[in-house]
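Q: Give me the 3D complex with zinc ion.
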Amino acid sequence: MSESAFLREQFVNPFTEVQEIAFLAYGCSEFYREKLHQAKLKPEEIRSIADLSRLPLTTREEIQGKPWGLLTVPKSRICQIHASTSLSKGPRVYIPFSDDDLYRGGLRPFTRGASFSPPLPMLVSEKDLVINALPYEVSHLGLLFHRILQDGVGTGVVPVGKGGFYSAPEKTLQIMKDLKGDHLFTTPAYAIHLAEKAWEVGYEIGKDLKPKSVWLAGESCSPGLRRRIEAMWKTDVFLCLTSLECGPIALECGEKNGMHISTGYVFAEIIPADDPVLKLAEGVGEIVATVLWRRSSPLIRYRTGLIGSIEDTACPCGLDSPRIRFWGRREEFLDVGGIRISVLEIEDSVMELSGISHWYSVRSADNTVTLFIPTGMSSEQRDDLKGKIEEKLRKQLRSSLSFEIQEHARVYKGEDWDRILSS
Ligand SMILES: [Zn+2]
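A: Here is the predicted complex, encoded as C-alpha cells.
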C-alpha cells in the first residue's frame, strides 16, 4: 500500500479519533477523569457524533495557571512547552508537548477524506524557501510552522523570527533579498511593518523582494486589511487560523474564500456564543475544537473564544474539508450601544478608504465608536473622513452609531498591534 493510501485509510474518520482521545483522557489525565466523573459519563457512551454534546466543554479558565494539569504522560516525557503571550499579568496558559506530539502528531496530513492533502493545502512546494518571520520564543507559532514546512512539506526554512536583538526587520529584509525567499510567513502587523521598512531602506517590493505568497497567522485580519497587505507586497496573501491551545485550526486555499478546517489536527464544532448582545448571523457561534494531534496534553471540546461559522459546500480547490468563516476573537467585538460589533467588520469598511492608516485603534463608549489614527491629518481632512466612515458604517452595520476620529502617537515596535483600546 502506498504511503498516501495508508494515511488516507487511517485518517478517513475523525470521529474515531475523538473517541480515542476521550478514552485516553479519561484513562490517563486526572483533569479529564474528574471532569467526566462529574458529568457522570464514560467514554464508551460516546458512540456517535450525536453523543458528542454530552462531553463537557473545556474552558480557558479551567486550564490556565496549571502547566501540568492536562498531562497524560509523566512530566519527564515532555520536551517542549509554549505559553500564552498576552501582556497581562493574569494566569498564563501552558501547553506541553512530548516528542511524539511534535514528530508524529505534528506531521500528520492536514486534511482528511477523499481530498487528502499532505501536509498542507498550501501553494508552498518542497523546492521553495520560506522566510519564517513568526515569533519563535514563548509563542508556538514560529516552531509550529517551522516543523510543518520543513519536516512536513520539505521546504527550506529561514528562521528569522519576529523582532528582537537578532532579528531586526532590516536584517530580515536583507536575508530575504540575499536568499531570494519564495514565501513569507508572519503576522499581519509585522507584514505591514516589514513592507514599510523595505521602503525606508530602499528595497523595491516586486523587484528586490518578490515573494510568491505571504501567509498571515497570529492576529485577525479583515478582507480589507488583507487587500492592503497584498498591494504592499504585490502578491497573494493567505490567512491561517491557529491557537496556542489547539495548533492549526484552519487555513485558506488558493480560492481565498474561507479557511479549510485542518481536519487532520482538530475536530471542530460551532456552539451558540452564549452572549445575547453579540450581533451574530444565524449559524455563527463559538468555535469549539477537540485536539487530535497532541496526546500528552489532550483538549476535548475546547472553547477557543474564536467566533465563526462552518460551511460544508464544495470548494473549487477540490479539498472536501469544510471551511470556516471567521468573525474575530470574542474580545474583538466592540460594545456599541448594547450591541457587539466585530472590529473586523469595522476594519473591512474603513480600510477601503485611502486616507486611513493601517496603524489605527478603536474604542467604543455608549453609542460612539472612536477611531484613533496617527498624527498628521488636518482637522478638515479628519472631518471629511469622519463623514465618509460614519455613512459607510451606518449603511453596512444598519446601526445608528456615531463616529469620532482622534489622533494617537503610538509607534509600532514589533508587538501585537492592539486594535481595540479599553474604554
Ligand atoms: Zn478550497
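A quick observation: The chain has a mean pLDDT of 89.
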